[in-house]
Amino acid sequence: MNEAGITQLRSLINSRIGELYPEGPISLTKTIEYVLTAGGKRLRPLLTMISANSCGANFEKALPSALAVEILHNFTLVHDDIMDEDQTRHGKPTVHEKWDVGSAILTGDAMLSLALLILQEEETPRDLMTVFTKGLLRVCEGQAFDKEFETIKNISLDDYVNMVDLKTGHLLGLAGEMGAIIADADLPVRYGIRDYGRLIGRAFQVQDDLLEIYSNSDNMGKSLNSDILLGKKTYLMILAKNRIPVEIQSAIELCQEDINGGKKAIQELFIESGIVKSTKQFIMDNIEEANTMLTNLDIDCSDLLYFSDLITRRNN
Amino acid sequence: MNEAGITQLRSLINSRIGELYPEGPISLTKTIEYVLTAGGKRLRPLLTMISANSCGANFEKALPSALAVEILHNFTLVHDDIMDEDQTRHGKPTVHEKWDVGSAILTGDAMLSLALLILQEEETPRDLMTVFTKGLLRVCEGQAFDKEFETIKNISLDDYVNMVDLKTGHLLGLAGEMGAIIADADLPVRYGIRDYGRLIGRAFQVQDDLLEIYSNSDNMGKSLNSDILLGKKTYLMILAKNRIPVEIQSAIELCQEDINGGKKAIQELFIESGIVKSTKQFIMDNIEEANTMLTNLDIDCSDLLYFSDLITRRNN
């Protein structure tokens, strides 16, 4: 696998994902097309296809499942954006901003049923649907904990990582596992790739926490203001509440009056107190653990290791 | 089948439905329990169980599917109540009223995944999931049309009935069809019961339109005010726009200033102009067509005919 290979797989995904729902009420076809063609890194479907291929199936065979996984991911984004009051996504207005909350709820619901239909229509193993459905509940639970944590002052790092594993890890885990199922991989390989995906997902989410506070790009930092004001927990924020509780509280309070000044203070505090360094270490530790897991499996894992590199190198 | 039999089946459903999600984030377990134990007539799961039994399976065998159908129905209610801004359901505050919109969105999502998990966990035929998933998309489409119609002045009766078939008919159709699948019924029986359910669903929804405007009970009339103010279409309202366009427009405008006076005017107009009579006729025609469909099938349809009677006789 190389950059050109990834680009080719992305093109395959993008060429199919916009045509999945051509007929239906205009209020749904237009919102679903809007969401599914808005871009994004397509990391989850890439993982499904790379996983399947690493286990001996061709990329094309994994495409329906890959699309289902990407639609599931986008379903969660549409609904989460309502809950988190986020106004932009991929540099465009979110569905509830551009249309309204009702349309966004229904768009998500219909997208989920499209994803399920893709899995049903194919002559695919029954396990695919079970993994997908269990994953869906776990993702909902992760989002529920994330919301619960907003109003709880002291969240332990363990509780936070558990929430991340549910909300983000499970989705990357099922993306990898579904690829292995398609290739009819043995159970140790299947569960190995699932656990690899979960660890990568954990690293990915904590990377998000880090990128969001330091990135100036349009892609990241999109919801930082609302996150701080909503009291959203992040890996860095929890470390700060443990290490520098007084200082971080002042910086958060400053945000209420002066969002830019407060943000800058938070950025500086995170660096000075070594929180950024610890966070980067945590990300690398998880990616390394994920990679070690792969190398113990009886497959050629070079493409999956390339996928890990993609995650490691990302800056948006 | 008789009243005691129905009561017994309802008890079976109610005894199981509250225990389906005992462990998870408290913000989800409490809302899901709240929704699933709030009561309701349990008509859809009753249809699944009666359908299965009429095709030769025992009631118990159909219980998981019946529960999945009832949870799917409640998922649509939770999300629709947000979209329709309804404040009460079964005499209790709706989820988004009692908690908030985010909790209600997530509650619906998690309920849907519970329903899917029930269908996955059982050693059930693959067709069950296909029917369920297709039905889910149709229900979303029905709700999308319902919302679209709010802002369109002239909706034909055909368009309205098509929307009702998607939104309500498909769910009762799949409830019946899933029962037939569980009993491994022949395709003509399976599709016959599906079409029976769809016609019953159509009658049921138009009954709702009628009951909502004349009932004084807590159960019905719950959202009439918001329905009129949102410009929600009903079977009666569409007949009125055709038959007495000027008079009904005045009554609707009166509602803006004086909701009770306007409501009374609408009630009287519907009676005087024969709209109530035509609506009742439409309901009866559909129930009769549904029943005729049954009697042509190679099964003992007496319990399903009893189910039709339940619908015919209902007053809430």
Shape of chain A: globular
Structural class from helices and strands of chain A? mainly alpha
Total count of domains of chain A: 1
Poorly predicted ranges of chain A = none
Task: Determine the strand fraction of chain A and express it as a percent band.
Answer: under 5%
Give the strand line-up of the largest sheet of chain A: 1-2
Q: Count of DSSP helices of chain A?
A: 15
Q: Strand-and-helix sequence of chain A, N→C? A: HHHHEEHHHHHHHHHHH
Number of strands of chain A: 2
Rg of chain A: 20 Å
| Biggest sheet record of chain A | 2 strands, antiparallel
Largest interchain contact: A-B, 36 and 36 residues
User: For this structure, what is the CATH class of chain A?
Assistant: Mainly Alpha
Q: Could you please say which CATH topology of chain A applies here? A: Farnesyl Diphosphate Synthase
Q: CATH homologous superfamily of chain A - what is it?
A: Farnesyl Diphosphate Synthase
- What's the architecture of chain A in CATH terms? Orthogonal Bundle
Task: Give the topology, please.
The structure is a homodimer of 316-residue chains.
Chain A: H1 3-17, H2 26-36, H3 43-54, H4 63-83, E1 88-89, E2 92-93, H5 95-98, H6 101-121, H7 126-150, H8 157-182, H9 187-214, H10 224-230, H11 235-243, H12 245-257, H13 259-272, H14 275-295, H15 302-313
Helix pairs in contact in A: 1-4, 2-6, 3-4, 3-8, 3-15, 4-6, 4-7, 4-8, 7-8, 8-9, 9-14, 11-12, 12-13, 14-15
